[in-house]
Design goal:
By secondary structure, the chain is α/β, with parallel strands linked by helices. The longest helix has 32 residues.
Length: 437
């Protein structure tokens, strides 16, 4: 089978590489010629474990191609996936201009049946707009060509996207015809030979499922952060609370970890978009508004703890940040708590030293010269008055504490992800603060 995937960002490139891995002939399309040239040379626009190797392997095998022109492959492909960005508009709603541009390009160049699949996260009703845009272009050309639209939202976790795609816990597909259902079955059957976990549904339900899933996960995070903050006030331990409630099978243990707030390309954007979708229908998502408010407050918690530990005297202090990406195993800093933290530290007159295993270049692009870019985690803490753990990379989990203490001016550690043992660190002479304990 031949398919095209428009958009070579996180979703599009992972999707294309994984389909090529199981034998599909894939053409990845992007309007950015620089990005396409780099991909042709084996340079990845994002960091994702295992992605570069998979892209290179399938490019050499002749199953993965890159181009800036969708029209050049329209005759060969049966399915076109749209995986372009849907950035939040000024009011928080999803901006669909790129999605509709893809639809119009398809309508301008298709000559035989195509299945057009929206992979991007889009509001309910987008498939109808995609259908209308394609049909308008066909009408303008004065031709009649059959096509179907479908919704196939992604549920990939950054840092484990390859494994998620190759062995998904479920695949959600919204379709309107048996022909579209059969094509999507053919595409996903190789991933799920032993246990076919494709959930077919109507298109609006598929579009809503993506937003509902991410909003539920964001809700769990904000709920636990709210509980953690209360735990500190009443003398409880959020880790024990998590263990107690997570053992309830109705609740489960996932996404119950307290920390310094969620970020990334999905949760913040999708929560905002679902709130705006509800408002457009005259309904208020009160729970999600609270989820968003709690998260924004939580992104400042490390700064507040630092202020308290230093009695408000931050000017001229050297502060080290371990971790910049919004989560481990990615270089993604979109909506990352580190960005809020850096801004607040800079405004307070701090000298900021940072290190992240993968996100240093991304930080340079976003932050510029506000911070010192350390060569490693130990360089970051040199003569620091405090070390703030922002991202729980594996490399940070078991540092050489004697080296850390010797390098720092003041042995103050503020753990934004609760990965360290409080008693152990205290026994080594550190002042230690964390979330919810």
């Amino acid at each position: 089978m031949n398919i095209a995937i428009v958009g070579t960002g996180y979703v599009g490139l992972v999707t294309g590489a994984c389909f090529a891995e199981i034998g599909v002939d894939v053409t990845c399309v992007d309007v950015d010629p620089v990005k396409i040239d780099k991909l042709e040379q084996g340079e990845m626009p994002i960091y994702e474990p295992g992605l570069k190797e998979m892209v290179l392997r399938n490019k050499v095998a002749g199953r993965l191609h890159f181009t800036t022109r969708l029209e050049d492959c329209m005759e060969q492909v049966q399915v076109v996936f749209s995986a372009v960005g849907t950035p939040p508009d000024e009011d928080g709603s999803a901006d669909l201009k790129y999605v509709l541009q893809v639809a119009r390009t398809i309508g301008q160049h298709m000559t035989d049946y195509k299945l057009v699949v929206t992979k991007s996260t889009v509001p309910v009703g987008t498939a109808r707009k995609v259908r209308d845009a394609i049909q308008e272009e066909l009408d303008r050309r004065g031709v009649q060509v059959e096509f179907d639209v479908a919704s196939n939202p992604e549920f990939l976790k950054e840092g484990s996207a390859i494994a998620d795609f190759m062995s998904p816990d479920r695949v959600v597909v919204g379709v309107e015809s048996n022909r579209a259902r059969d094509l999507m079955t053919r595409l996903y059957k190789p991933f799920l030979i032993q246990n076919f976990r494709v959930i077919f549904m109507d298109i609006p339900s598929a579009e809503m499922t993506k937003y509902a899933a991410n909003s539920m996960l964001a809700t769990r995070i904000s709920f636990m952060n709210d509980i953690a903050n209360l735990c500190e006030l009443v003398g409880a331990d959020v880790n024990m609370v998590r263990s107690g409630i997570g053992s309830d099978t109705r609740i489960g243990r996932k996404f119950l970890y307290a920390g310094c707030g969620y970020g990334g390309s999905c949760f913040p954007k999708d929560v905002k978009a679902l709130i705006k979708t509800a408002e457009s229908q005259g309904y208020s998502m009160k729970v999600l508004k609270a989820v968003e408010e709690v998260n924004e407050q939580q992104k400042s918690i490390l700064f507040r703890k630092l202020e308290c530990a230093l009695d408000g005297d931050l000017s001229g202090k050297t502060v080290a940040l371990w971790g910049l990406a919004f989560k481990p195993e990615t270089d993604d800093m979109r909506e990352a708590p580190s960005l809020i933290l850096i801004d607040k530290l800079h405004e307070a007159g701090c000298k900021i030293r940072v290190f992240d295993p993968e996100a240093m270049d991304e930080c340079r692009r976003r932050v510029g010269d506000k911070v010192y870019y350390a060569t490693d985690q130990y360089d970051a803490i040199y003569q620091a008055d405090a070390m703030l753990l922002v991202t729980e990379w594996k490399a940070f989990r078991l540092p050489a504490w004697k080296v850390v203490k010797a390098a720092m001016r003041r042995p103050l550690v503020i753990d934004g992800r609760n990965i360290y043992d409080a008693e152990e660190i205290a026994s080594l002479g550190f002042e230690y603060h964390c979330i919810g304990r």
